[in-house]
């Protein structure tokens, strides 16, 4: 009985496939000659190509958006560091001006001299604060412009890409 099984059992994968195909042809006589109409095949190929193009387009858009966000966050981070450096510089200048004022006031010999030193200090502080406010405003404008530029450029690039794709 073992010899009979060996004789009928397929020895290779190709023989097994041929045996299965033969059984399918016996059960379904037109199975081996079934052809997909050319129009249907062409439509399926076109749909697959359109789906691939759409996928590639969306993938490219997502990559562009990610790059734009990364650039925007990098610009914001740089702007924040610039603000911190500016604020520390202003604080140092104010601190030094305060110590200079106290040092001058310690050496005062008359009330008139104290009023003069106080008036000069107040005027210098007002001028310094005015200048610092202008510098902060210019820095804020620059940071805003630099921070939004990558995002605006990324959106414009994505829209152009989108228009070209569709």
Automatic annotation (TrEMBL):
Instruction: Fetch the InterPro entries from UniProt.
Output: Phasin, Phasin_subfam-1, Phasin_subfam-2
Against Pfam families, the record matches this protein to: Phasin_2
Presence of the UniProt keyword Membrane in the record: no
Q: Which residues form the Phasin domain?
A: 60-153
Record key words, sorted: Coiled coil
From which residue to which does any coiled coil extend?
A: 112-146
Q: What is this protein called?
A: Phasin
Q: Which organism is it from?
A: Tepidamorphus gemmatus
């Amino acid at each position: 009985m073992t010899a009979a099984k060996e004789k009928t059992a397929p020895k290779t994968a190709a023989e097994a496939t041929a045996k299965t195909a033969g059984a399918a042809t016996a059960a379904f006589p037109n199975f081996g000659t079934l052809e997909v109409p050319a129009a249907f095949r062409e439509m399926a190929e076109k749909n697959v190509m359109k789906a691939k193009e759409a996928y590639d387009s969306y993938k490219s858009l997502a990559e562009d958006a990610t790059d734009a966000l990364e650039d925007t966050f990098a610009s914001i981070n740089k702007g924040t560091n610039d603000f911190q450096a500016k604020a520390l510089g202003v604080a140092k200048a104010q601190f030094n001006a305060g110590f200079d004022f106290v040092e001058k006031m310690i050496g005062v010999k008359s009330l008139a001299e104290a009023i003069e030193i106080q008036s000069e200090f107040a005027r210098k502080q007002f001028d310094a604060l005015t200048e610092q406010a202008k510098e902060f405003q210019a820095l804020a404008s620059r940071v805003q412009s630099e921070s939004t530029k990558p995002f605006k450029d990324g959106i414009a690039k994505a829209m152009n890409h989108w228009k070209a794709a569709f």
